[in-house]
Known about the structure:
Blueprint: E1 4-7, E2 10-13, H1 16-34, H2 38-41, E3 42-45, H3 81-85, E4 118-121, H4 135-148, H5 153-158, H6 172-177, H7 190-212, E5 214-215, E6 222-223, H8 226-234, H9 237-256, H10 258-263, H11 275-302, H12 316-333, H13 340-361, H14 365-368, H15 379-409
Antiparallel strand pairs: 1-2, 3-4, 5-6
Helix pairs in contact: 1-11, 1-15, 4-12, 7-8, 7-9, 7-15, 9-11, 9-13, 9-15, 12-13, 13-15
Flavin-adenine dinucleotide binds next to helix 4, helix 5, helix 7 and helix 13.
Amino acid sequence: LCQHSTVGPIETTLCDYETIESVNGELYNTLSELVRTPFFKYFQVDLYRECPYWQENGFCMNRECGITTVDESEIPERWRAAALSKIELPPLEERVPLPGCYYRDSDFCFLDDMTEGEYVDLTLVPERYTGYSGPSAHRVWKSIYEENCFGLSELNLLTGRSPAQITLPDTLTDVLREPIEGEDADGECLEKRVYYKIISGLHASISTHICMEYLNQTTGEMGPNLECFVTRVASHPERLQYIYFNTVLLLRAVSRIGPYLRDYDYCSLATSTPHDHILAKDQEEVKTHATLSKVIDIAEHVGRFDERVLFRGENANILKEEFKAHFRNVSRIMDCVGCDKCRLWGKVQTTGLATALKILFEMDETALDPHKNQNLLQRSEVVALINTLHRFSESLQFVESFRDMWKETGESD
Ligand code: FAD
């Protein structure tokens, strides 16, 4: 039987939610180890593209907004621009004929050109309060919701709601079907709702990180801010629910791509390295494989999400194209974010979510075969997928900490 447990406004439900909560500690620790390995910590990104939608001049002048990129000489040779630009596809006769046209040219996001951009060590750039806010930040969120959200957003952006105790659905597949707040029950199709939930969940996860490491204006120190979390996330229980939703979506994608990831070449050093380096390389690769394997095991255990209910029926293909076009626009809107750190994590996470969507909705079993289709995903997609899952898993850990803080305030009695 599914029950609801409520800690003040920080509500949760049992069943699927409880399953995720029961494994999240282990998932989070394993992912934290994984994202520190060389393969997963370097992300190549072009942070300085022009905002294609408007003249962005609200750049954040706060010291916290800036990032330092890594010199290319620190990056394993095979990932450098010159080496990357040389990556070749298998000969035509060895390629698997794939349904549709998703091979490389059909994505849910625009991947940066891998011959440009710089490497960033993600472990050195925590996602936290940067001071980026005001009209520039609002404009970006607004345009993500409004221009890409099938007109649903205004409801959520304009209604300041009280911490109502909304009954949560029992399973995460039910979340797929739930109408969103303020929506006319027959108003929107499933796919459009799902789109909104993904974006709102991403927004809630970013907010959770900001509130966990918030700047205390009096002491000048960073630390958790319970009020921030309650206002931005917990007083809107559905936002909390969408963090779970995105976590399960990502886990399901990792589980589906499991065999491919288990077979992936995580070798990070050049082939011409001396003997002791080859030894180090082997050990490092073994460790990366073992850690990733643990993550895949967990994903296979809990990544329950029935993607088959989406993109079916009469207008399935039109809807899917529409969905993709919207999601692609979001990745371009990231170039309009006026704070380097926020833009970086925005890009990592939209790429990670887009990769999950691609895995769930664009690939059939033949395509997923690691032997037949070795170049299925680009390195940046694999790195983004795992780092995005780590972000969401971290948010769930933070939610636990906020629950404890709430209990300590005594307001839960
Ligand atoms: P905002 O978070 O800006 O929200 C605007 C409005 O959207 C709210 O008033 C509300 O009505 C609605 N809303 C809020 N959350 C949700 C939700 N989950 N679902 C649906 N509707 C919602 N700032 C940092 O300090 N560090 C970062 O790393 C960072 N990363 C960012 C990444 C991106 C891509 C963007 C666009 C912004 C980022 N920001 C970051 C800015 C941050 O998200 C906020 O915009 C800023 O802190 C101001 O917050 P706010 O309280 O005014 O509301």
